[in-house]
Amino acid sequence: MSRPPLPAGIARRGLLLVLSSPSGAGKTTLSRRLLERDPNVVMSVSVTTRPARPGEIEGKDYYFITRHRFEAMAEAGELLEWAEVFNHGYGTPLSPVEKWLNAGKDVLFDIDWQGTQQIGGRMEADLVRVFILPPSAEELRLRLIRRAQDPAAVVAKRMAEASNEISHWAEYDYVIINDDLETADAAIRAILAAERLKRHRRIGLETFVKALRAKL
Question: How many CA atoms lie within 13 A of 78 on its CB side?
Fold first, then answer.
């Protein structure tokens, strides 16, 4: 999906696209598909205090930092959002996000409801919130088991936490039930296409309209 051409003198400010869901509902897979298809979307790379999982790459999946460094960044206001999830800290560095928005790029976030609330408190006008639901509790459990990344005790803990996470669904602008990957993927791309056309994101549009009317 490429960026539609804009008339001369009109640019577009990027947006913050948040995908949230209980663990195992599919947000990571949907995020990766969007990044593969749309060069105008960049992934926000978070810092975290948890150890890397097998196959994760420093600077691509996360920046793996110490607890001391994480707390220092939060205290200095260097994190757009941060949260404690399963006893580990996660946060988004602010500086690169601002850079991408000003360059007209859309920044994708794979974060939970706590982080989404924090971003909304600081950058509400730029924010687009999408919540991903599993089709059923049993399917969520099966996805977590098939993922084979966590021991049984962690799977049980994530299932227990899912109800609390899902309780925040109404705080989001859009809700997608991920019972079919292709359908969910198409819904996210449609949301993104519409949000990019929002009037307040089109820099120079007011000037363009005034010039247009002056020649009529």
Answer: 12
Asked whether the predicted pLDDT for residue 37 surpasses 90, the reply is yes
8 pLDDT band (50/70/90 cuts)? Answer: low
In a domain, 35, yes or no: yes
DSSP class of residue 58 equals: B
Q: What CATH number should be reported for the domain holding residue 142? A: 3.40.50.300
Residues 55-97: tens digit of each pLDDT: 999 998 899 999 999 999 999 999 999 988 889 999 999 989 9
Name the β-bridge partners of 42: 107
Alpha-carbon span 96 to 93, nearest angstrom: 7
For position 148, what pLDDT does the model report? 60
* CA–CA gap between residue 159 and residue 63 (Å, rounded): 26
The range of the structural domain enclosing residue 115 comes to 11-44+105-214
Sheet of strand 106-110: strand arrangement: 41-43, 106-110, 16-20, 127-133, 174-177
